[in-house]
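INSTRUCTION: Work out how this chain folds

Token vocabulary: learned, describes local backbone geometry

RECORD BEGINS BELOW THIS LINE
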Amino acid sequence: MKLIEKEIGTLFIGTVSKLYGDVEDLKEVQIQATKEEKFGDYQTNFAMINSKILKSNPRQIAENIKENFVANKIINKIEIAGPGFINIFLNKEYLAEKIEKIGNEDFDFSFLNREGQVIIDYSSPNLAKRMHIGHLRSTVIGDSIKRIYKYLGYNVIGDNHIGDWGTPFGKLMVAYERWLDKENYKKNPVDELERIYVKFANEVELDPSLEDLAREEIAKTQAGDLDKIKLWKEILTATLEENEKLYKKMDISFDTYYGESHYNEMMPKVIDELKEKKLVRVEEGATFVFFDESENLYPCIVQKKDGAFLYSTSDLATIQFKRNTYNINKMIYVTDERQQDHFRQVFKISDMLGWTDEKVHIWFGIMRFADGIFSSRKGNVIKLSDLLDEAISRAYNTVNEKNPTLSQEEKENIAEVVGIGAVKYADLSQNRQSAVVFEWDKALAFEGNTAPYLQYAYARIQSMLRKAKEDNIELNGKIQLEDSLEKNLALALLEFPNAILNSASTYKPNLIADYLFETAKKFNTFYNNLPILRAETEDLIKSRLILSDKVAKVLKEGLNLLGIKTVDRM
């Protein structure tokens, strides 16, 4: 289904061509939904932004367009406002036809450049410990961006660039040899690994030489020591299995799991290429890349004097691998705000190497307690699994109170969908660049601008549709948009693809959340003020049911783009 703005824009181009011929450098027609009914349904500042190119007064251009507008079935009338704004009023019949296509035809996003693959790097926890709520943001934001780009028709690759090769593993190896409780490890390996990791952090304050031992252990592993590799794989397998259970529970999946270890043998080649292109300098034994002063970047170390590589080297090897493996459309990295300078350095170095594919760092504000940042070393984290379990438990209590007659299986299913949806939405509904202070009640709220509010609106519509089916009412009529509440709701539904496009271009899922919340509020106003199943005529009943069904389809699709499921009853 062609986007309504594109259809209106085509009409404007046709009229302008008729009036002025094929004008070079004409600025694109920008059609926007109006915020007030008195200004029509859509409007454009086309005449104003093109007045110099068309060498005419913008008000006069607008009047000419109005008087000579090409015949069509889309626009009912045009009005001119102010210095040359063009207000557009749609034909109700055309609007109804567009609404009827929702759910039956896909939106047409063919105007996008979708060649090649979009590779999204997200979640990326360090292994050997459980994921905590500090990992939530990268995981759900990255998953949502992946879903959004897939919906737009891109070929998307989701990569979990797991931390499986750094100094934390060296620390664990030291702790494993010294303090492991074998019985506890046998029963619950990840719990025991977390315990000894925290113990290492406490012990190193008393004995700093433990840090040197940790570096030695990981150096042996990276050099291929068989015993160390065996232990590394053991720790890796235990935590990957634990993480997979959590991802599955959250309905999150990845196409690849290329951890840091995958790039170990590629990093020396990156250094060789940097040296070959004379992009590095060696100072005091360490290898640096320096930047032009205008870049306002610190020099980047790509190899330590002991020969060890850094995250910068690993990320450069990652870019090189992706370039050799995929036909890249763009590479997206979803991490917290503290890595902004790191990725600016890495992206700049890759450009200096001639690897100029589009690269985007999607950073987000850190989630923290009111009194500080989460830290596995300090042991002050809330496990992500505990957060989800608490959300599900609270949702179950609410469902059990409001719908005690539902089966146990249905209560548990609703509780899981609503609970996990509440956690995801509490994060995704916020501007990703804002810092988030974690509060239990806020994260698990079920009222206001929340997932349960949207899920309930969807379930309410499903309840109406079930009642209509029981009354033998078939959804085979035509949509009527005589009341302003009906028309406003219809116009809101047609803005769905624009919300998705805006979200994709800014990498902000909260724009979809904002759209869904506003649309759900419009539906509830419509529902509370106009009779639906008790409307005056059968045709009107069918019309309002069909319109409600289209709202449900948009809510379901929009929530799915946020990784949130729906249920038919709550």
